[in-house]
# Entry
Amino acid sequence: MIITLRKDAPQSEIDSLINQFEKEGLQVNIIHGDNFNVFGLVGDTAKIDDRRIKANPWVENVNRIAAPYKLVNRMFHPNDSIVDVGGIKVGGDNPIVMIGGPCSVEGKEEIINIAKAVKEAGGSMLRGGAYKPRTSPYAFQGLGYEGIMDLVEAREITGLPIVSELMSADKIDEFIEHVDLVQIGARNMQNFDLLKAVGKINKPILLKRGLSATIEEWIMSAEYIMASGNPNVILCERGIRTFENYTRNTLDLAVIPIIKEKTHLPIIIDPSHATGDWKLVEASSLGAIAAGADGLLIEVHDNPECAWSDGAQSLKPEKFKCLVEKAKKVAKAVGREIYES
Ligand code: PEP
Ligand code: MN
# Structure
């Protein structure tokens, strides 16, 4: 961390700051310039509150050199983390996973039919929301526990691991018992109590990027989960809010190489929520694979016109199948494979 002090800072202020940093176990190197005095702090500065230092009227500037995250930082963990989801390994050189399924679970027969179609198309996991974070309180809120049980039955029939969103910690036992990959949705990315709660469980977590979250904020949320004890985190980019309105969100594909450089965690892409339009899902998916994604999370519905949520961005099973076939070719071109069960 570099702290720039005004040249006219009194010696008593300089001594008090040095004393404060040394008490925190940091080494302070000082450069006396013509216009400023510069402190170079060496050591673990993660716990230093830079906003508090900035409050000092003699301080001109505070710059962090080291990233504020440690556990997810590739610098301290050079190898890719591999996350096991119901026996399927995600991340590293492992095959890319294609996760398909409806936005919302709509009933037992429906989810079983879609699960079979997803499997037949080459999908490796089944998604489906039972607790839905809807913008309107009047919109369908999900089938709740019944929906989770329907997913469990679809898993029994197809063998596909199930992915579903946990909205609040009071349902955590239900998810520990039944769900293979626990999704934390975009709207809860900074629900820190929920992050701490899933950090204490022994299940892999799919952490979506918040609607307007910076990459660093998203990484810090992954750090919360890991700091609470759960190393099994997969990141999921689902588009961010921008000024653009031809798409529901703006898909940020550059995050894939950035996440891989900064962290050791697997990253998957959700082109359905990112674009909001089924016609854009295939191109976005292929781009994501070319850019190094470890998986895709795609909304698939057998009758999108009648879907209870997000029909406009849902692929019909035959389109999903076609996408999986094209994905195999793109994966091959970048030295990867698509997971086949
Ligand atoms: C979802 O995947 O069902 C969902 C609600 O996504 P997001 O949290 O990315 O909006
Ligand atoms: Mn959806």
